[in-house]
Sequence to fold (308 residues):
Amino acid sequence: MTLVFLTSGTALCSASANALNMIMEPEHDAKMSRTRNRPLVRGYIGKKGALAFAAVAGAIGVGSLYYGVNPTVSFLGAFNIFLYAGIYTPLKRISVLNTWVGAVVGGIPPLMGWAAAAGQTATGNGGWQELLLSPDSIGGWLLAAFLYAWQFPHFNALSWTIRDEYKHAGYRMLAWVNPRMNGRVAFRYALLSFPICGALWWFEITDTGFLFTSSVVNAWIVREAWKFWRADGYKGSARGLFWAGVWHLPVVMVLAMAHKQGLWEGVWQRLNGETPEDDDIWAGEEELAVLRDPRLPGSLKPIASADS
Fold:
């Protein structure tokens, strides 16, 4: 049930943030081909109705994360709504730094997922310090860092293809404010995929094989980002980088799951009729619980003390 609450709650928080975003800029969205068919632009719903939807979705989403997952994940969901609608959206018309803020928004969901899973196995009180600041939380931060870095080559390529529309709508994006920097930023953040994936191995989140398989995919997006930078987005380089980004993220995430530390050792042990170490631990606890059940014949009884 935790997964159900996590996915539905996160989706509702995302819906709330996007609705608030649309409420704030329908006249500007009307100037761009990718946003001119949004419900508020087309008049399918008014601002009051959209605001009511955003409020209900946000309340249910944050509440679901609080009661169905844990308070830490709930706070991250609420914070992301604020960050997206309250900071990123108005910043788009003020500074190119909006892209960096938007990248933080995109990096928080994997951290929410990690904190949700950590809450199920917490050995302490399950507070935010344990879920976000303990040594075991490094995997969540690395996944968030990967999502953060991935967004720059992907979005910078996307925004370059419609840079004139962003300019016409008044959104300050690097693609038209500083096209050369747009390419450099895409390339630099594509390079970060190597050390981030390396850190996932170093901290034993994934096995050694992930170093090699992820490097192949990372090399692809770095190559496309290099071409995008050197060609200033022309000669099909923007489209090449965009599609590399579309595949890069899911492929690396699947590889990380396939190379989870200890996964294949456990599979091999089961194929050979052995019991993985973790299974021994849990089986032992379950067996003791059964043996201590006073309702069952032959159960273990507490030994009376000499004073009784």
The two ends are 45 Å apart (CA to CA). Residues 280-284, 298-308 have pLDDT under 50 and may be disordered. The chain is about 75% helix and 0% strand.
